[in-house]
Design brief:
Elements: H1 2-10, E1 13-19, H2 25-38, E2 43-47, E3 61-62, H3 69-76, H4 80-92, H5 95-107, E4 113-117, H6 122-126, H7 129-139, E5 144-151, H8 158-175, E6 179-184, H9 194-201, H10 203-216, H11 224-237, H12 239-242, E7 246-249, H13 258-326, H14 337-359
Parallel strand pairs: 1-4, 1-5, 2-3, 2-4, 5-6, 6-7
Helix pairs in contact: 3-4, 4-7, 8-11, 9-10, 10-11
């Protein structure tokens, strides 16, 4: 039993930490790094935020060592978000080298966890082409789990909670990777996240909280009736989605809840191996087969075009041979002097007839 659990803990896994600005992603990364090191499990850390001034944890690979964020803004005349996106795009062109370093570490068993810290602007990573390339490349080499960090105190509001869940479901179905929802800053809540978990397990409790929130608002609140009706409907839609999530509450400040997070991470690693990896391999095989069919179709069209060209050349050669046979093997110049003189004589005769007709 002990050897089995040790083998499970040492199995490699990568986690991509994402979340809204201010949710505490960087602090979460710092606490996760120290939590792993205290258990003699050295992580391999990648920082993908080019605009961060300092990282409170040591980075094995730092995007700032490759791309100068401020220089990118000056050179391409970009704003802050455009500078971050362009820096990430430039870094992605070298990500195959980064992936090679990660694979070497994993093969030599010099690390058991790969941690990725993403930019504070969540949409830059989750909805950009570079973010998709990095996610797919990493998932093809090592079991990968998404860690979606949410600000727990702000999620006390029904509207903020449902908005975070909608964003989580969109990321889940876009990346097709297992996800852990982490409510951070639980130390700021006296009752913890029991209420939020209850909302996810029982939609009627969320509807009850939504009615209480609606009653507490002033009667002249613009659009409040429509918004509450929409959130009420969304809670029913998301009920099935909640069943595919592991939810934990942590405090990056005190370290509370990180043992639960590590258990959830290991569960999601096994889920990746059993469910997501076969699906990814099937999709990759289907995509490769489709590309092979396209190549064969292009080759068929090319061969068909070459065949038509050969037939056209053959017909042309046959016509030339026939013409040579008629003229005893001599080529006929279409603009020969005899034809030109005959054409001129016919033209002169036609003009003379026309002049005579005019004088009658």
């Amino acid at each position: 039993m002990t050897s089995s659990s040790t083998q499970t803990e040492d199995a490699p896994v990568a986690t991509i930490v994402i979340g809204m600005a201010g949710a505490g992603k960087t602090t979460f990364m710092q606490r996760l790094n120290s939590h792993l090191r205290r258990r003699a499990r050295k992580p391999y850390i990648l920082n993908l935020d080019p605009a961060v001034l300092e990282t409170p944890y040591p980075c094995n690979v730092d995007i700032r060592d490759t791309v100068n964020y401020k220089e990118v803004m000056k050179q391409y005349n970009l704003g802050p978000n455009g500078g971050i996106l362009t820096s990430l795009n430039l870094f992605t062109t070298k990500f195959d080298q980064v992936l090679g370093l990660v694979e070497q570490r994993l093969e030599k068993r010099r690390c058991s966890h790969v941690l990725l810290d993403t930019p504070g602007q969540i949409e830059i990573f989750t909805w950009s082409a570079s973010g998709a390339i990095i996610t797919d490349a990493l998932a093809s080499s090592v079991p990968t789990v998404l860690t979606y960090v949410i600000d727990a105190p702000r999620s006390k509001s029904c509207s903020t909670f449902i908005s975070s869940m909608l964003y989580a479901v969109s990321i889940l179905y876009k990346t097709r990777l297992p996800m852990i929802v982490v409510f951070n800053k639980i130390d700021a809540l006296e009752e913890g996240i029991d209420e939020q978990i209850q909302w996810m397990r029982d939609f009627e409790s969320f509807q009850l909280a939504l009615r209480r929130e609606e009653q507490s608002q002033p009667d002249d609140a613009a659009g409040s009736g429509y918004m509450h009706s929409l959130m009420n409907s969304m809670s029913l839609v998301l009920e099935e989605f909640y069943n595919h999530l592991d939810v934990v509450g942590v405090s990056a400040l005190s370290g509370a809840g990180f043992d639960d997070y590590m258990k959830a991470l290991d569960n999601k690693r096994q889920e990746f191996e059993e469910i997501y990896k076969p699906e990814m391999e099937a999709l990759r095989a289907e995509r490769d087969a489709s590309q092979d069919l396209q190549k064969k179709e292009q080759l068929r069209k090319l061969m068909q075009d070459m065949s038509v060209s050969d037939r056209a050349q053959t017909v042309s050669d046959a016509e030339e041979e026939e013409a040579e046979a008629e003229h005893n093997g001599e080529l006929v110049d279409p603009d020969s002097d005899e034809e030109v003189h005959e054409s001129v004589e016919r033209s002169d005769a036609t003009v003379d007839d026309w002049i005579k007709a005019m004088h009658r």
